[in-house]
Every structure is written in structure tokens, then in C-alpha cells.
Amino acid sequence: MKFKYDIIVVGGGHAGCEAAHAAAVMGANTLLITMDMTKLAQMSCNPAMGGIAKGQIVREIDALGGMSGLVTDRTMIQFRMLNKSKGPAMWSPRAQCDRQKFTAEWRKVIEHTDNLHIWQEQAQSLILKKGRAAGVETSLGTRFYGDAIILTNGTFLNGLMHVGFKKIRGGRSGEQESAGLSDQLRDLGFVVERMKTGTSARIDGRTINFGKMIEQKGDEEKNKFSFLSKDAVLKDQRSCFITHTNKDVHEELKKGLKYSPLFTGRIKGRGPRYCPSIEDKIVTFKDKNEHQLFIEPEGRETIEYYVNGFSSSLPLETQIKALRKVKGLENVEIFRPGYAIEYDFFQPTQLKKTLETKKIRNLFFAGQINGTTGYEEAAAQGIIAGINAVMKINGKDDFILGRDESYIGVLIDDLVTKGVDEPYRMFTSRAEYRILLRQDNADERLTEKAFKIGIAGKERMEMLNEKKKMTREIIKFISEKSIKPDEINEYLEKKGTSTINQKVKAINIAMRPQVELTDFIKRIEGSNKLKALKSEMFERIAEYAEIKVKYEGYIQREKVIADKIKRLENLKIPEDINYSELTSISTEGRQKLNKIKPSSIGQAGRISGVSPSDINILLMYMGR
Predict the structure, then answer these.
(1) CA dihedral defined by 377, 242, 338, 173, rounded to 10 degrees?
(2) Domains observed in the chain
(3) 359-376, pLDDT tens digit by residue?
């Protein structure tokens, strides 16, 4: 038999699921090859989606027509909006999810998506034809042919797990590694390197003394990720709990350092700077007497808990002894120890901004294979790779998001322009235009673009248009409505802001930092006639309108700056340019430009080692 598809996606993690779903929704006959159909979009580390900058990414995936936000909403057991004490550019949604239900929900999505097929087996090698990816061969010798191939192998490429000096080959606890692809790609000239990540022990909730810990409850309102979801309050949220390590814990951990694969050189891969193992923390921050730990439920009905902040590859005995020195975990029992995992990845500078490889046409990489860490970063790459694979085989323009348009654009530009020397994690600080890239306006930024290429559906566009219409209605109402002192002074006193002694426009009061529009607008006479006030999404719409009113000056100023910088992005560099001939450019500059082969002057300027004078020479060469 000959199995022929338009798009073949290898790997059923977060990147693979989003890539396969995107391609199929856009009309491509798509195959998803995975080693285990019961582990689709598995949460290998902590069971949560979103967080600082990551929450913005999930909202962007949703705005594009992806499924991560909807799956999160359907399986969440707690929701929190982080950084509410800061400006709206920093607000980041985060949800604790039911691990098993999250995977089950993703499987339901995949199985009920038209044009999408699943095959359970290990992909072993690529089929190539004249410098183009043409198919995949599996471990049993099954050959699948496709017009474009997307590799999303996660931590499975030559995966090696460590617990103390014990080593187990595999891509995740209890799952086999993926062998063959790395060696083939290395032979084809790809730069293959090693990285390391890890996870914490899973513990028995029946043996935890929660009374000794600080309870962390979820928010009571605004608890949805997807722009399609209604703003109903999440019932019966599960709490997380906060505790800390201490000197006794650290002493116990130090006893095991001589058996640490991390410090004895047995682990060669580079680990994540911003999510280090507990043994790395006590060595790097040796002056700190404690480190914060989050005890997170794995689901609504299970007794299993995840110890966030206690990732470790130390021997089992050391992990248990150290955990039992933690306040509230004195009698803890574990289900399985934490472990470190090493795996192959490919320097992302070998990719175009579409995530297609430069060496092999119609071959795309997405997820941890590109040196990133995190479900959200992987899912974001997956949806972009899926979209661009379809665009490529249909002969249509590339789908590329700018740094001023999305965190996804920042993520991909950073990867393909700068490369990685440690697992890449997104932060708000990586984005130059944070006030433009808020979590509340991801739909305004991206949904219309996605609708035009056929991934975002009609319902999303209709909801976006309705949201814009209601926002204008609210702003028009408060801009025109005047309020008397006796109508509002009691409310202003309660809010701790100065009262008024004459009629003022409602918008002047709405501009005050102490005033929340969701509450304030209901107190204005005549507001009950507003359509927005009757909408199920009123709180979300009012919050969006409030940000536009209060931060309009900042938003416009950042847009002006972004537009100026964007001119450099529009100056495209010819693909056939030979930088070696431009001897006026510094040696390092020529080397880096030849290696990265930037698509625009803007991208060239962000390459480490390329100086402003190098850019000026390049502009002169191009007749600018």
C-alpha cells in the first residue's frame, strides 16, 4: 500500500497537535504520527498552561484558531491572572489543568478534526527527493509520503533520562526514545546539539500536611483563556499550596551532590537557566537559606501532586530524604522520583522564519527540537509550522508574524536570528512592544489575519467584530455622559479617590487608576441600555475598553516607534547575496550574515556580532 498525504506531522506533543490541527483545518490531508495515541499533548512537567508571557502566547494561539486555549478552558481546575498589581502589558493568565483530562480532550479534538488521520508508530527516517522532504519511514518499514513534513519530536530524539547514576533511554518516564532521525539529519549537514531539562517527583496528597502551607486559591472571575469561551465562573477550583525549602533540606541535598549526574559530568546537555533543578539552585544560590515550592494538584479527582520548584536528577534516596525535611512534607510518600532528561535539538538558526529548514525544502521543525522549553512555546511554533506548510505546498505567501504583532513573532525571530545556548523560555522582557502585545487584544491583532488564510473560523471573526463594536459603544457612552457629584461621590470615597464638586464627563473619572470600569459603568445613569452591559462577555469587553481609555497615549506612542522600526523589516535582502564579497563589513559580521542569511535589514540588525556600521554598509550596497 502507498500512503499519501499533503502534510505529515511527526510527534504528538503540544507542537505536533497544534501543527496537525492547523494543517487539517486549512484543508490539507494531514497525518499525525505519534508513538502513543494516549499521550497526545501530554503535560510532561507541571500540569499548567500560561503564566508570565506564556499566557499571552496561549491567547495568541487561540486568536489564530488554535486549540490550546479551548482545551485549557475545558480542563482547568484553577485560574489566576498574574501580575494584576502591574500595568496591563504585564497581566498574564495562568491555569492549573487536570493532566489526564487535558490529554483526553486533545485526543477528542484530533479525532474529530476533518482531514486529520493518526498513525501510532515510531518515525525512523525521512524520505528525500531532490533536496525536498517527501515522506517518512517508520520503525516497521511503513512508508508515508507527503508534500511537506513537520518534525515535532520534543525530548524524544536520543532521549536519555538520569536519576542519580542510573541512566534509562527514553523520551519521557515510561516511554521509549526516538532513534534514527538525528543521525540522518546530522549526516545531511544539520547542526545537532544536546540539551537537558528535568521534572520533579510526584507525591501522594494523602501524606501532605496542607495545614503547614500557604493556600493559593484561584481568581473568582475572568477565568477563561479562549476568546470563544464564555466568561462563566469556574466552579470548585482546586487550590495550590506554597511552602519552602530550608537549611536542613539543603544539607540533605548536598549529601547527594557526589552522586549528581549534573555535577559529575554525566549530563552533557545545557539546562534551563530560568527553571533550574533544586541541586543547581543550592549551588548557584548558596547564600539563600530557602527556595519557594508550589504544591500543585494533578487533577480534580486524583491524589497526585506535583512539586513545582523541586526538579531533580539526584538519587531516589536523596530526593525522598530532602523532601521530608520540607515543611508540610515530613511524612510524604512519592509515586515516582524526579529525573533529568538529555535530548537532541537542532540550532534554530538553520530555519527560515516560516520554520522551514534552509537545507531541505518542505521540511519544518517545531517545538523543543528547536531548543525551546515549555508547552506554550512549543504549541506556538506548531501552529506557525502547520500554517506555513500548507501555504508552501499551495504556492501561497509565507505567514510570518512581526515582533510588533505578537509574542509568537518575538519567539520565532529570536530563535532563527540569535539561536540558543540554553532552553529558550519566553518572558515579557523579550518583547520591545509589550503594551501592544497584551493578553486582552490578541484577537484584535491576529484573528483577521488567520481568518483570511482559512484557519480562524467565521465565529471568531463575528465575536471579534462584536467585541470591537461594544468597546466603541462603551467608550462613546462614557465620553459623552456627564455625572453629577451626588451620583458618584459616595463610590469615589469608597475607592479612595477624590470626590467631585461639579458635573464632569464620565471618561475623566474612568481614567483614574483607582476606578475599575466594570464596576463604575454600572453606576452611571442610562448605562443599562448598553448592549455591552448585557453581553455574557461584559467583563472582558469592559476591561478591554478600560485599557484603551487609560493607556491610549502609551499605546499610540509605542505604535509610532514600532512603525519606524518596521520600515527596516520591509527592506528585504536578496537571497543570493554573497556577504564574503563585502569586505568593508567586519569579519565577524560577514561570518554571522553568511550563517544566518537574514531575510531583511531589520533581522540583520538583531544578529549578535553584526554592528551598526555593518548595517550601514549593507544598506549602501543595496542602494539605500
Answers:
(1) -50
(2) 3-50+112-196+343-427 (3.50.50.60), 202-342 (2.40.30.260), 458-554 (1.10.10.1800), 571-621 (1.10.150.570)
(3) 999 999 999 999 999 999
